[in-house]
Each structure stands twice: as structure tokens, then as C-alpha cells.
Hints:
Keywords: Signal. A hairpin with a 5-residue loop joins strand 7 and strand 8. The protein is rod-shaped. It starts with 13 loop residues before the first helix and ends with a strand. It has helices at about 15-30, 170-185, 195-210, 220-230, 250-255, 260-265, and strands spanning about 35-40, 40-45, 45-55, 60-70, 75-85, 90-95, 100-110, 115, 120, 190, 235-245, 270-280, 285-294. About 25% of the residues lie in helices and about 30% in strands. The strands form three sheets. Strands 4, 5, 7, 8 and 9 form a five-stranded antiparallel β-sheet that branches. Strands 1, 2, 3 and 6 form a four-stranded antiparallel β-sheet that branches. Strands 10-12-13-11 form a four-stranded mixed β-sheet, with helices on both faces.
Amino acid sequence: MRRPLGALxxxxxxxxxxxxxxxxxxxxAPQDTCRVQVSAPTVTAGKIQVIGSRAGCDDTAVLRIRxxxxxxxxxxxxxSGARRGGDVQLTLNARCSTTPRTYxxxxxxxxxxxAVSPAARLSCAPTTPAPTPTPSPTASPTATPTxxPTATPTTPAPxxTGGTVGTAxxxxxxxxxxxxxxxxxxxxxxxxxxxNKAAHDHSATQAARNQMTHQFPGGPDFVQRIRNAxxxxxxxxxxxxxxxxxxxxxVVAAWMKSPxxxxxxxxxxxxxxGAGMVKxxxxxxxxxxxxxxx
Length: 294
């Protein structure tokens, strides 16, 4: 039969006695160091992932993790997994929806140890890869011709930035482009022979098909055309195209009035250029500029 607390001491009040008795009892009890824990859900490799563990335990138990979706009504378990052991860790993956949803995880070892993770709102909507270079806007000047077409010279003219690359019109485009870049504090572009070939060949294809475009259906994109011309390396690429601008001055002026084309011309990271111009059977010029940083 349990004695009243007053019988344990000769003096002192009940309140004064109860505190040290309770403290002594807690100190004498064995320490329970066994614990479970679980991480907040994250998205890893397109899956919802949580990691749970059981540590500091002397016995063996089944560790179970449930990934739950918070929703109206009862929360839904989207994935459950278990592993048996003393000190044990378990990684659990679940399918991820493209619609943002709120998830959390619950872990238990059926020995009275339970933990709940913080909630996280997650989705696995596809992301746009960091581009290998993408073309500039496809809009391009289409001014009505006012000057009678002239034949395109076939003899290469000296390149103002060094070497002999391209036709006189193509090199004039490079010269005028570099003047605009100088106004904005950018260094001059060097007319590269392989980039000139890539630009000239694309202008020839556009002229032959009477269509201005960065890429024909089923054909290579502008970066692949640069590679096909024998150019290697490069860390950034861009392209401008235009149709029916009759002179180098006209086409460069029109490009500079278009925000997307101007951005390519005034991008100081580019240091190489290829300029190409070919006329169709009607005498209408198709222009191409390609830019590379190397």
C-alpha cells in the first residue's frame, strides 16, 4: 500500500517535498535515446523524395514512411515503404505531378516513435533547358525595293578586320555592324571564313526557296549549319536574317531598328561574325548574319 507523502519526512510541506522527489525519479529512469526522423519532401530526378531514419535504438523494429498529399478531406497516402532494423535508414520516392501540390511525410517504428516532416509544395513541370543557342526573333525588314537590283560581285573584297573574306557587300555589312558596336562600347567582330560560308550558304538556300527563315523543315538549325561549315568551339551563338533590303546600309539600319536583331549586334560577348548575301532570280537579296563568342 502506497504511503502518503507526509509520512516520508518529519518536517516540510507537501509542495516543498514533491519537487525533489519528482526530479530524483526522472534522473533514475533509463534514458530513451531511440528516435526517428524524416526529411521534408523534395523533388529529385523527377521524383518526390523523402529520407527517414531510426537511430540510437537497442531493439529491432520496422521503420515505415508514408508520403502524404495534403488535400480537402482526409489526406492521401501517395507512397508507403518500410524497412526492418535497429539503426536503419530508408529513402522513399513517389511519382510527381506536373500540378503543384502539397506533400509531407510521416515516419514511425511501431515502438512509440513517430515524426512528421514539414510540408512542401512541389511540382515536376517540365523546365526549359538552358539553350544551346536559340535564334533571334524571326521578324525581319521587308521594305519595298526602290533601287534597281545590281549583280552580286563574285570577287572577294578585303576584310576590314583582317584577311580576305566574303564579297564586298558582305564585308560592308561587317564594317557597318562594327561601327554600331563601337557606338555601344563593344569590340569589333572579326569576319571568320567558316562563319562567312555558313551565312552565305543559308542566304543561298533562302534565295533558292524564296523564303526567309532561320530553319527549314527537316533541315539543320543555325548552330548545326555553323558546325557543317567546319567551325569548332564557341560558347554562344546567334543569327539575324533579312529579305529584300537592297544595300548593306539598309539592312544594317533595319536590323538596328528591330530590338531582337539589335540585341544580337550589340552583344559584346560575340567576337566573330559571318555575313552572307545571295539574291534570288528576281534580284531580291537574302541576308544572313551569324555571331559567335570564342
